[in-house]
């Protein structure tokens, strides 16, 4: 019988053999605090769960039908002492969990700059955080080091004992940036920037990944993370700077195309405005940036000046990039009543509209784009106000007869 029990436990032991307890064995102070929060919260909840489970088994055994010596009180209905224990113990645990959650929410806020490297070891005044700009691509990770002037794909390196400040965004769909041994998970979203502060306290060679499903290549969306000493980090930076590949905007557009299981790559001579262009959805040449459109809207909008903006702000990852889903660029041909627009198009069938400039609008208050149109039967109403005769002003405009 005992052998059967051991055989029944064998699949469980085999399954647990593939587990990786990296979350419970972190190398970063933030991850260590999160582990402590997880362990303490679990222990507090077990203070209720274990006694309840144990007493359930005890009462089922003690008051079984075959135990004639068990105490029998069919008229029993209330016990003040039992009510006090039943309600007081969970209430105290909920209060403790609430206090831990409140403190953890503020102290472990991913946007909060670090004030310590480890317990009892504050961040020295002479130490500046390492800035890393993170872009989630399909299906790989791009890391830009603005101060070092380098960029990498699926290869993240940081010095031990130096705070890291991540600025995170995505090129298309939402992902989740996660290095279990370093810090908690935070989402990467297009046209939005999230932040994460962390520090590696000991050398480590592990991996990070996306913990939010993002498409066909999601299962291979891993990257290598290493924490090296200062000399090792500087050596790695020098190796990356020796790369012959520059990361220009065009190189980024090529890199952004979906690909799976991408090996590590290094880039030197990185465009310093690239990350902001990715964040504002305007890497393509001539495309209006999101912050430019927001500034224009804050001043009252574009109005008629937007007629020469040939690339709309609406973001389509594959638009006008040579794919089967990419549409052609368009522009505004008229702002008028349907009848006036139809009349203008009929008159310009043999004389196409000539535009002074097709460059996108980059600010408010610009001059009206120069349009050259043949003479119309009457001026367009949006340019020249038309005064109606008294009878039409009262009864409305007359419709032309079919004759």
From TrEMBL:
Gene3D superfamilies: 1.10.287.90, Cupredoxins - blue copper proteins. Residues 15-112 form the Cytochrome oxidase subunit II transmembrane region profile domain. GO terms for cellular component: plasma membrane. SUPFAM superfamilies: Cupredoxins, Cytochrome c oxidase subunit II-like, transmembrane region. Keywords: Cell membrane, Electron transport, Lipoprotein, Membrane, Oxidoreductase, Palmitate, Respiratory chain, Signal, Transmembrane, Transmembrane helix, Transport. It is a multi-pass membrane protein. Pfam families: COX_ARM. InterPro entries: CcO_II, CcO_II-like_C, COX_ARM, Cupredoxin, CuRO_UO_II, Cyt_c_oxidase_su2_TM_dom, Cyt_c_oxidase_su2_TM_sf, Cyt_o_ubiquinol_oxidase_su2. The keyword Transport applies. The chain crosses the membrane at residues 37-63, 84-104. It is found in: Cell membrane. One of its GO terms (molecular function) is cytochrome bo3 ubiquinol oxidase activity. Residues 127-239 form the Cytochrome oxidase subunit II copper A binding domain. One of its GO terms (biological process) is ATP synthesis coupled electron transport. Belongs to the cytochrome c oxidase subunit 2 family. PANTHER family: CYTOCHROME BO(3) UBIQUINOL OXIDASE SUBUNIT 2, CYTOCHROME C OXIDASE, SUBUNIT II. This is Ubiquinol oxidase polypeptide II. It comes from Ancylobacter pratisalsi.
């Amino acid at each position: 019988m005992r052998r059967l029990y051991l055989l029944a436990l064998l699949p469980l032991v085999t399954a647990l053999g593939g587990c990786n307890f990296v979350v419970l064995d972190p190398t970063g102070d933030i991850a260590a605090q999160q582990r402590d929060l997880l362990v303490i919260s679990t222990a507090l909840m077990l203070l209720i769960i274990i006694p309840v489970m144990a007493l359930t088994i005890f009462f089922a055994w003690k008051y079984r039908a075959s135990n004639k010596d068990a105490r029998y009180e069919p008229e029993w209905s209330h016990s003040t002492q039992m009510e006090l224990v039943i309600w007081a113990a969970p209430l105290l645990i909920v209060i403790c969990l609430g206090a831990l959650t409140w403190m953890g929410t503020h102290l472990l806020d991913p946007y909060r700059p670090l004030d310590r490297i480890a317990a009892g070891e504050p961040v020295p005044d002479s130490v500046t955080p390492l800035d890393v700009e993170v872009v989630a691509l399909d299906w790989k990770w791009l890391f830009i080091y603005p101060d070092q002037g380098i960029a990498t794909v699926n290869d993240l390196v940081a010095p031990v004992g130096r705070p890291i400040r991540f600025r995170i965004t995505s090129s298309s769909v939402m992902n989740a940036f996660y290095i279990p041994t370093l810090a908690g998970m935070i989402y990467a979203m297009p046209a939005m920037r999230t932040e994460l502060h962390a520090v590696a306290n000991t050398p480590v060679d592990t991996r990070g990944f996306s913990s939010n499903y993002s498409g066909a290549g999601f299962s291979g969306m891993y990257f290598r993370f290493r924490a090296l000493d200062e000399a090792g980090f500087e050596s790695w930076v020098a190796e990356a700077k020796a790369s012959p590949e520059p990361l220009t905007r065009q190189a980024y557009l090529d890199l952004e195309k979906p690909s799976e299981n991408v090996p590590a790559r290094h880039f030197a001579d990185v465009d310093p405005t690239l990350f902001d262009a990715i964040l504002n959805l305007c890497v393509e040449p001539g495309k209006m940036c999101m912050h430019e459109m927001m500034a224009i809207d804050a001043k009252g909008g574009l109005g008629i000046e937007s007629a020469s903006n040939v690339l709309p702000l609406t973001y389509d990852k594959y638009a006008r990039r040579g794919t089967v889903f990419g549409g052609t660029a368009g522009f505004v041909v008229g702002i008028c009543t349907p009848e006036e627009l139809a009349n203008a198009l009929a008159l310009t069938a043999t004389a196409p509209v000539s535009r002074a400039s097709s460059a996108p609008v980059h600010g408010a208050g610009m001059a009206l784009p120069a349009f050259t149109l043949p003479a119309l039967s009457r001026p367009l109403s949006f340019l020249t106000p038309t005064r109606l005769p008294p009878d039409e002003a009262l009864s409305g405009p007359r419709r032309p007869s079919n004759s």
